[in-house]
Amino acid sequence: MNEQYDPKRFFEFLGFDPGDQEYESENLETVNVFCRGDREQLERLLEPTPFTLESDIFQVTVADFANCTMTQGRYFDGGVLLAVSYGEHRAGTYFFEFEDEHWSTAAGRELWGYPKRYAKISMDVDDHGAKGSIWSYETPVLDIAVEFDDSVDPAAWSEAKLSPTM
Predict the structure, then answer these.
(1) Which of 95, 97, 90 has the alpha carbon at shortest distance from 42?
(2) 65, burial (CB in 10 Å: exposed 0-12, middle 13-18, buried 19+)
């Protein structure tokens, strides 16, 4: 028996590469919708965390990692990011994230530490806009859509620092 639990060894047992490897996804397609929420509700969501809410602006996202360099290949993810701080550090944190592959779900949950759940995820992009959807089995969880419009000014959500993530 090993005295020290090593999550990487468990990933090997499952047949997955460890989730702590560096990777890229060239030309990552992402649908991001910026929302303004009720500050008190958002603060309640963060109560079990060590984070302080920094903005009532949050981001709902769906991404297609079609060109991911990880050996397991393509996956989709999506979720909700909140603008937070920890001490003097400001960033975003996933309040919750969904993944469409078992290995990517495990990598986020066990190695990154924030909650993830397996789900069906899709994204459709054409010349006019994009749509992302998430289902927990057959139950719809999230649908977001955007119409491409070069005249939109991002100033309305620029105060919210949502990256990097912590």
Answers:
(1) 95
(2) buried
Helices and strands: H and E segment counts in the chain:
3, 8
User: What are the tokens at 83?
Assistant: 């603008």
pLDDT tens profile 9-57: 777 777 777 767 777 888 999 999 999 999 999 999 999 999 999 999 9
Torsion of CA 76, 131, 31, 145, to 10 degrees: -140
Query: In terms of DSSP H, where are the helices of the chain?
Result: 7-14, 39-45, 102-106
DSSP H/E element including 81:
strand 76-86
Cα(18)–Cα(9) distance, integer angstroms: 8
Taking the alpha carbons of 83, 113, 31, 39 in that order, is the dihedral positive or negative? negative
In 3D, which of 136, 129, 131 has the Cα closest to residue 150? Answer: 129
Render pLDDT for 51-82 as a digit per residue (tens, 0 to 9).
999 999 999 999 998 888 876 778 899 999 99
Other Cβ atoms closer than 10 A to 17:
15
Residue type, 60: V
Contact (CB, 8 A) for 115 and 104: no
Put simply, whether the predicted model's pTM sits higher than 0.90 gets the answer: no
